[in-house]
Amino acid sequence: MASLKTQYAGLELKNPIIASSSGVTDSVSRIEKLEKAGIGAVVLKSIFEEEILIEMEELMLNMTARPFVFQELIDCMEDDQHEDIIRTYLSLIADCKKAVDIPIIASINAISTQKWTYLASEIEKAGADAIELNLFALPSDLDKTSAEIEETYLQIVKNVLENVKDIPVTVKISHYFTAMGHMIQKFAEAGVNVLSKNNEIALPMRWVGIMSNKVAVDLVATTGIHTGEDVVKLLLSGAPAVQIATALYRKDFSVVKEMTDFVEKWMQEKEYETIGDFKGKLAHKNNEKTESWERVQFMKEFRHFVDKHTKH
Ligand SMILES: Cc1cc2nc3c(=O)[nH]c(=O)nc-3n(C[C@H](O)[C@H](O)[C@H](O)COP(=O)(O)O)c2cc1C
């Protein structure tokens, strides 16, 4: 029988399907249901850097080195709500760890290197198996260059890594980098695994395929993964796992079994016993020229499109 076990960021997963951070990963009861449905791991709904800073603002009122928080942000948050955000989040982690056996990955939505990164150590103490950093700074400051934004991202990672001792840290990034491969390499050098979030499956697959043999960290994908076939394609590109959110909303949690059944059947047909037997089989090899590999993939796609849409 085929084994779907895999390793992501050093975590042992019973299968490669991870519930992506979303509304379905914000409570113990839903996470218990996800475990029953067969999910391999869960990324909790994100806590936002601003939420952390607001609580810090209150704690540090009498200190000189106060972190800067926009007044609008403070105004928009209900006083009685924000006081407990951090405690509630840490309790969610601890409660999930008691309730389920699957890995629990905490998630922080981060945009700056302000002094919120201490929370990473609290998250580790609460029992999280890993921390995912969703890095998303809207580049609306017209004076900031892309290099400065990239440097901020790397600094966030470094600050967080300084605050955790034993658990892996991953980053979730969009594909809006001019030099995506270079950035993935920089994150890998900083010591994190990379999760690529995009508009459709083609893009993360492309980058997983191009980079998975070039960096010594795991690259996984999120966005647009709806079927077992999508999962197989990403594993073949070199991802050890995938993250899904919309599929869990649209098809209910039974989609997890649909996906794992498909992967298992496909592996049996191909006579693969473990995911390691085929993971990365279609990834770009180190000795191939990236540009020509990319060009061939593009030509194949384009030819297929022309054949399909041309009558004669
Ligand atoms: C309702 C909803 C809430 C989400 N909340 C978060 C969040 O708090 N943090 C995060 O990193 N991503 C969040 N996401 C993004 C998902 O984790 C995922 O990356 C995205 O939906 C793309 O995957 P999909 O195509 O499988 O939905 C959310 C998505 C949805 C649909």
Structure description:
This protein has one domain: TIM Barrel, CATH 3.20.20.70. It contains 13 helices and 11 strands. The chain has helices spanning 28-37, 49-59, 71-76, 79-82, 85-99, 119-126, 146-163, 180-190, 202-211, 228-237, 246-251, 255-270, 290-309; strands spanning 6-8, 11-13, 17-19, 41-43, 47-48, 104-110, 130-135, 169-174, 193-197, 219-222, 242-244. The chain has an 8-stranded parallel β-barrel with strand order 3-4-6-7-8-9-10-11, surrounded by 8 helices. Strand 8, helix 8 and strand 9 form a beta-alpha-beta unit. The radius of gyration is 21 Å and the shape is globular. It starts with 5 loop residues before the first strand and ends with a helix. 39% of the residues are buried. Residues 62-66 have low confidence and may be disordered. Bound molecules: flavin mononucleotide. Residues 20-23, 45-46, 107, 109, 134, 172, 197, 222-225, 244-247 line the site of flavin mononucleotide (FMN).
CATH structural class: Alpha Beta
Fourth-tier CATH superfamily name: Aldolase class I
Total helices: the number is 13
Q: What's the main sheet like?
A: 8 strands, parallel, barrel
Radius of gyration (CA) equals 21 Å
CATH architectural label: Alpha-Beta Barrel
Ligands in the model, by name, code or SMILES, are: flavin mononucleotide
* Total individual domains: 1
- Rounded mean pLDDT is 86
- What strand order characterises the main sheet? 3-4-6-7-8-9-10-11
Q: Oligomerization state of this entry?
A: single chain
Give helix % range: 40-55%
User: Which fold name fills CATH's third level, the topology?
Assistant: TIM Barrel
Estimated structural class:
alpha/beta
> Helices and strands, in N-to-C order?
EEEHEEHHHHEHEHEHEHEHEHHH
Instruction: Give the termini distance in whole angstroms.
Output: 46 Å
**Low-pLDDT sequence parts:** 62-66
Give the overall form: globular
* Extended strand count: 11
